[in-house]
From TrEMBL, chains A, B:
Name of this chain's protein: histidinol-phosphate transaminase
Alphabetical keyword list: Amino-acid biosynthesis, Aminotransferase, Histidine biosynthesis, Pyridoxal phosphate, Transferase
Organism, scientific name: Paracoccus hibiscisoli
Example GO BP: L-histidine biosynthetic process
Pathway: Amino-acid biosynthesis; L-histidine biosynthesis; L-histidine from 5-phospho-alpha-D-ribose 1-diphosphate: step 7/9
Aminotransferase class I/classII large domain: residues covered: 34-345
Single GO term (MF): histidinol-phosphate transaminase activity
Keyword DNA damage: no
Amino acid sequence: MRFAPLPAGLPASVPFVGPETLERQRGAPFAARLGANESAFGPSPLAARAMREAVGQVWKYGDAPSFDLTHALADHHRMSPANIMVGEGIDGLLGTLVRLMIAPGDAVVTSDGAYPTFNYHVAGFGGVLHKVPYRNDAEDPEALLDRAHATGARLIYLANPDNPMGSWHDGPVITAMLDRLPDDCLLVLDQAYAEFAPASAIPDIAADDPRVIRMRTFSKAYGLAGARIGYALGAPDLIAGFDRIRNHFGVNRLAQAGALAALADQGWLAHVVAEVATARDRIAAIGAANGLTALPSATNFVALDTHRGGAFARTLIAALAQHGVFARMPGVTPLDRCIRISCAPLHELDVFEDVLPRALSDLATR
Amino acid sequence: MRFAPLPAGLPASVPFVGPETLERQRGAPFAARLGANESAFGPSPLAARAMREAVGQVWKYGDAPSFDLTHALADHHRMSPANIMVGEGIDGLLGTLVRLMIAPGDAVVTSDGAYPTFNYHVAGFGGVLHKVPYRNDAEDPEALLDRAHATGARLIYLANPDNPMGSWHDGPVITAMLDRLPDDCLLVLDQAYAEFAPASAIPDIAADDPRVIRMRTFSKAYGLAGARIGYALGAPDLIAGFDRIRNHFGVNRLAQAGALAALADQGWLAHVVAEVATARDRIAAIGAANGLTALPSATNFVALDTHRGGAFARTLIAALAQHGVFARMPGVTPLDRCIRISCAPLHELDVFEDVLPRALSDLATR
């Protein structure tokens, strides 16, 4: 089978192995699903009801412009609908954005250890990735900007708050980045975890600012990961560009209904954010009781520093899995001294509390 | 905003304007939704129940390989799971396929008037489209093959049964095409309407045949258009290629549950196919009573020949919309002498029966 030259040169790899795949490999379900930063607190009950009710209309294609949701988001963010593009989650939107902006050979800058799916899309469209190290377990705006200037990058990727470390920058740090961006370079600001962050971490950016596109999702705080729906905020020209290449009828109709109802229930969102804060503290306490140190987090997960190297942490992740706990960890040194534990209801964290010392004990006796 | 050269050269157009958009433009809902070949007969009640139940798990990302559904499809089609790729509907799968196979400048052959979304994807990845005319209101295998040989095409698109005309070729015509395919050219056999077709229209193709990829969907006979789920059948090397570029977690979790339950309820499928046959006859009778002639159809829609030109048919579509009936029509001459009416429950066809003579009367008095 002869593929086109670009995909012919790509590996047949997958950025993430999902928990169901791991469960099939181990032959048993996980007792605690703490690896994908999903929200086991679930979506708003109103969103769940809206989705169940929408099943009666699932024989209809979804509304291509996601009109109702786009307008509700415009109200929510005090923007124009022309600033908003609804898509199949941030993963889907990042793929469309990279395709829109990057020709083969174009430079793209990100942090070494940041979101692998973004890198996957860049490689998939022939972009050349340049990676700068994290600094103090946070993405490093100065280094990203310097590398972008040095390489003539067309995109800089920055997640704020960050995944996988949970760290964050204050809003003015982000807006200052915009003033130092190279000409013709767009900041891709991944705000998947924004709802969990302090207000000070949300930069004040004009809706029509052409220097940045912001990615938001219903997969995290809104609890709709399986629905595959998110949105981009950006200048109208950029947002309109998506219509040149996107799969117009690609958003699931139930997801549209669920997201609309979820957005309207900000009370549930506040409830989840509070539960997540409680869970973060609990994860930190469980870690501390076992010699692991929680890094500060503005997300729905906690990076626990093992104070050992990546090999140790990788073995610990495997041992946790053997004991029924699905977790993940950063992929590169020095971040990979940590394991990453998603916030979850307390009964799942009870499992983690039970399993962590046993997994550590397994490692000690090897 | 400077886009990459390829998307910069694309129009900001949309292959289809959806019915909700038209409803917003006209300021009222349609009384009959007969334009998108959806199935108003709905999905299996068991599929609907499975989706409602899956809402409780929607906080989880879907299973990236769609393992359960892929294995059920393998059983259903008596193939290996390695022959099957589940994706976000045929639209999504076609986009991924074109990206996998077509480099800028590569030739692709289709029929003039065939599925616009395929053409949209080809243009979107820089392919050069070559179109051959329909012959007797059917796609023309010989002309497609001749053009493919002449242009060195890498893909030939053929829908069997065809959309928008509803015509079909017998299976042996398709398998004979495979023997005449140019080297290095893949037949894209769109079987979106296969479940409505006579068994004789389904070609007998070996699962591992590397010359063809078949596209199937849950959007039509299975009644799950809004769920965005379909699948490709092909040789393992080709199917594995999708994993190089696809959005691995892009399939909605509720869609996976719904499709699995829908596939298991072949009794409901048979019920829908029978209802569609009844509706086809009814549409033909309504057409005949108004001087329009139904073309034979192996799909869930009927092309009604107006015996006038495209300008007349376009005006008729607009008049039908004014009277509350959403329908579409072929885009090119001579197919555009027809309007295309989707099969639907009889109460919706009652609306069509009431409106068609009034719409025709509007045209006559202009």
